[in-house]
Task: structure prediction
Amino acid sequence: MNYIYSAVSSEKKFFGNSDPVQLSEKYGTPLYVYNENILRSRCRDLKGLISYSNFTVNFSPKANGNLELLKIVRSEGLRVDAMSPGEIYVNKMAGFKPEEILFISNNVGEDEFRYAINAGVKISVDSVSQLEMYGKINPGGKIAFRVNPGFGAGHHEKVTTAGQNTKFGIEMSSIPEVKRILKEYNLKLIGINQHIGSLFMEGGAYLQSTGNILSIAKQFEDLEFIDLGGGFGIPYRKQANQARLDLKILGNKLSELIHTFVSEYGKTIEFKIEPGRYIVAESGILLGKVYATKMNYDIKYIGTDLGFNVLVRPVMYDSHHDIEIYRKNGTPSIKEESVRIVGNICETGDIIAKDRMLPEIFEEDILGVLDSGAYGYSMSSNYNNRLRPAEVLIQADGNPRLIRRRDTLDDIVRNFII
Ligand SMILES: *Cc1c(COP(=O)(O)O)cnc(C)c1O
Result:
């Protein structure tokens, strides 16, 4: 047994018929490993969120746009958002039909609107000027817009995406202007959407924002959908037994709000949510290898191949990810110590876990970064001309399958004009 410190992944049988050391030997590190069963169960959690029949869950693939994962999400009956033509393209490749895709645009050019219009997907705009641009290109067309009710919520200011200090949405005082442009270009308003921020662990702000968007919705007669946004949080501190978001309580309260609204509105219009993180975060563990350990002026450093080109969340948002330790010979560590786990990028800020008490870590150990399925690979880069990692899926039958190969040096030079 080579699991040294692995309570979370062991309990979930995360690695199926393999173990992390075998996987790292077979596929190399850094390596993103995903578990199909967990992914499917998270899809089902949210599909069952509310007791209202015209309810759809739009996965937000910016959290993780791997083609095979998108196919699984689709097979669970979810739909999908897109933030760019690239996401529209990949979503279609995964089998989503145009009408199952909502393009939530933000500061795009006419070419992107044209791309989305030709693709036949639903489109939402993010400002009055973009509404006007759309109207000129596609008079008589259908459109949705993103509201900014004036407050937001999120785990970090960079991901608080509504409120008076963010670039997102159309403010309340601009609604008359929206109505004027809709009329001028004979546009049909099919929906309104919002997304107040990412990673809430209690439902309060989400419910409040739902109340808000519902009161805005009443100002428009013939909506086809209302999209309440994503942001559903997951417990990143599982080793400290952090509680889960209580979907049951949230779901019951949301259902109540929606049923009341629908009876007043007089039409069972579609309600959507657009979760990213909740669907994929917990189905991913990032594996990396320890290549060096050292003391540097009283700090113990663990040097790994987990640079911030692979997982940027800790550096970008000060995010916490629990760390597990797997060891080939299985010899237990006898002491715990405070360590700083760092990567191989030439920057002092390249820290994946800062000053953590962990069982002693040795060279050759494999580390697992938990809950890295969301905003992991999708935010990875070739910074320092490093290769982006491979991705492996632990299938429902427990067997691993490569679902994206590691970059090669050729990938890095592909766009040079030689
Ligand atoms: C990022 C994003 C989401 C998904 O956010 P999560 O916190 O991952 O659930 C949903 N909607 C919009 C508009 C987004 O930009």
About this structure: The pocket of pyridoxal-5'-phosphate is lined by residues 60, 62-63, 81, 104, 195, 198-199, 229-232, 274-278, 374 (CB under 6 Å). Residues 247-265 form the longest helix (19 residues).
